[in-house]
Amino acid sequence: MTDAEPAWTDQTAPSLDDFARLAESAFAGLPEGFRAFAGDVEFRILDFADSETLSEMGMQDPFELTGLYHGVDLSQRTGFDPSPTPRRVYLYRRPILDEWCERGDVGLSEIIAHVLIHEIGHHFGLSDDDIDAIEDGLR
């Protein structure tokens, strides 16, 4: 082993708190306008989606879901809506870490930013194609 190689024997996966800090940093790195539009969206970091969420999404493997927007997206809200449930973006740490390990070609912060953009895009009511176009514009 050379001095430039990391000693992987002393490395640990980021904890939920570490991951929250990485997510905050990734969010802060997004364009100002995009962050401003996110408004009062809350962010939650969990290891996995719960079984009820997976069932609602038609998924059995908890590693398939890296993030989820929960709430009424902006395109469907009106001024006459009753008090809506809080709008939240869930980031699922273990599936994101798994994707990062499997890919091996991008940094963890880049994958977290990708999931944030995707889920915040759902807050705006954007399609996956619209979200992909936004990401392409950031590169």
Total helical segments: 6
Helicity range: 40-55%
* Rg over CA atoms: 17 Å
What proportion of the residues form beta strands (DSSP E)? 5-15%
What is the overall pLDDT average?
A: 83
- Terminal CA distance reads 34 Å
What name is given to the CATH topology?
Answer: Zincin-like
- Assembly category: single chain
Quick one: how many beta strands? 3
Coarse shape: globular
CATH architecture: 2-Layer Sandwich
- How many domains, as an integer? 1
- Could you state the order of secondary-structure elements as H and E? HHEHEEHHH
In short:
The chain has 139 residues and is mostly helical. It has one domain (13-69, 88-138): Zincin-like (2-Layer Sandwich), CATH 3.30.2010.20. It is built from 6 helices and 3 strands, in the order ααβαββααα.
Your description of this structure?
This protein is mainly α and 139 residues long. The chain has one domain (13-69, 88-138): Zincin-like. 46% of the residues lie in helices and 10% in strands. The chain contains six helices and three strands, in the order ααβαββααα. It has helices at residues 16-28, 32-38, 51-56, 93-103, 108-123, 128-138; strands at 42-46, 67-70, 88-92. The radius of gyration is 17 Å and the shape is globular. The mean pLDDT is 83.
